[in-house]
Amino acid sequence: MTDNIRIRLFSKIIIYYGICLALVLYAGLSHPEWMQFLPFGGLDVLQDNASVIEEGDLVDQLLVNQRPISLFNDAMNLVSALAGCLIVMIPLRWLYMTDGLKKSWNPDVATSLLVLPLIVTAIVYIVKFSLPLAFALAGIFAGVRYRTSLKSQSDAFFTFACIAVGLSAGTRSLGIGLVMAMFFAVTMLALPPRRGDQE
User: Fold this and answer.
1) Which DSSP letter does residue 33 get?
2) Which letter, b or e, does each residue of 47-79 get, where b requires 16 or more Cβ atoms within 10 Å of its Cβ?
3) What span, in angstroms and rounded, lies between the C-alpha atoms of 72 and 66?
4) Residue of 91, 77, 92, 93 lying closest to 35 (CA atoms)
5) Which of 90, 186, 168, 92 is nearest to 125 (CA)?
6) Gap between the Cα atoms of 193 and 150, Å rounded
7) Beta carbons within 8 Å of 27's beta carbon, 6+ residues apart
8) pTM value?
9) How far apart are CA 144 and CA 147, in angstroms?
10) % helix / strand / coil in the chain, to the nearest 5?
């Protein structure tokens, strides 16, 4: 019974991600002007903007934000990154909540699988161009405790996966998060269920 559930879920996830990849390829080939608003290629942009830092100028360059501000482009990039987070995380939530793979699942973790990547994406968007703001946010979050205890190791795996997707979307490198999510789902389905999780 568990094998049938795994095979059906595997097929569902592969079809879902295949459709997502096909839509992204279609958008990139038929409407290349849309790609500037999609959360892809962010690491290439950061590498292209990297400049040789002369000795003594490191602090000055880190403290000064030289990035031009475009309200429309920034808003569209953030909206597409948040939407991309949700699209990538939906199958991982299916995987976490599937009956037959585990005896029980934590509703708090299931909710965080959709909410936490959105928060991580927004935080990365806020701090990625400002070093002082990054330190300020680190100090703020140091005083906040994560009060939901993770009861199993698989809960921690899923939580780290959703943080990785949020980071990739926040840096406009959602392609990395998409590939990671696909491999994560396939790996979790390929592993045999733990004895404690079997009926």
Assistant:
1) G
2) eeeeeeeeeeeeeeeeeeeeeeeeeeeeeebbe
3) 18
4) 77
5) 168
6) 18
7) 34, 35, 38
8) 0.75
9) 9
10) 75, 0, 25
Cβ(179)–Cβ(40) under 8 Å? no
Cβ–Cβ < 8 Å for 165, 85: yes
pLDDT of residue 100 exceeding 70:
no
By three-state DSSP, how is residue 100 classified?
A: coil
Instruction: Give residue for tokens 């733990």.
Output: 194
Distance CA 80, CA 8 (A): 29
Read off the amino acid at residue 156. A
Please enumerate in sequence order all residues whose Cβ is within 8 A of that of 1, keeping only pairs 6 or more positions apart, or say none. Answer: 100
53: three-class secondary structure by DSSP: coil
Enter the tokens of residue 114: 């959709």
Structure tokens that stand for 8 in this block: 């059906």
Report phi then psi at 36, rounded to 5: -70, -20
Say which residue the tokens 């840096």 belong to: 171
pLDDT tens digit string along 130-168? Answer: 667 677 667 656 655 555 566 777 888 888 898 889 888
The residue among 139, 133, 92 whose CA lies nearest residue 116 is 92
CB 165 within 8 A of CB 118: no
Q: Regarding predicted confidence, which is higher, 75 or 142?
A: 75
Proportion of the chain above pLDDT 90, given as a percent: 8
10 Å CB burial of residue 14 (0-12, 13-18, 19+) is: middle
